[in-house]
Specification:
mainly alpha
Length: about 150
């Protein structure tokens, strides 16, 4: 029968997950900021939009998925509109819905930033872990997300 991890051991495991994530995310976001001048929330929103059909999403859904408050998302969206990365598009079907949609410039930036992100992740995640540990890590995080999401 496998032994149960001690309290200190399991708490240490989780601490290592957090520390590894933070160090990796800081390195990734530092390089993205240096290359593209994008803040983490802006980069996250660009990635979410570039991966959707028509490169647009309802703003409330986008705010929720990006884990931003309504006010926080509005500030980020205002900055993105000012930078010509997104535009606000009213829904033709529901007056209560407004879409955030990538502009032509936003699409170009998002594509280049996504490409750079993949290159950086190959270097800072895939190279040190290898393909099978990287896949196992993604599978483990997917399982945790599913088990702990509401």
């Amino acid at each position: 029968m496998p032994s149960k991890p001690e309290d200190d051991e399991i708490v240490s495991w989780w601490g290592l997950v957090i520390e590894g994530y933070l160090a990796t995310q800081d390195k990734l976001m530092g390089e993205i900021a240096e290359r593209f001048g994008l803040a983490p929330a802006t980069f996250d929103i660009l990635l979410r939009l570039i991966r959707t059909s028509e490169h647009r999403m309802p703003m409330t859904q986008l705010a929720r998925e990006a884990a931003l408050s309504s006010g926080g998302f509005t500030k980020v969206a205002d900055r993105m509109v000012a930078a010509d990365l997104i535009c606000r598009v009213p829904s033709p079907d529901d007056r209560r819905v407004t879409f955030a949609e990538l502009t032509e410039h936003g699409t170009e930036v998002a594509e280049k930033a996504r490409e750079a992100c993949a290159e950086i992740l190959r270097r800072i995640v895939l190279a040190p872990l290898g393909p099978s540990a990287s896949t196992a890590l993604a599978d483990a995080m997917r399982a945790l997300r599913a088990a702990n999401s509401e």
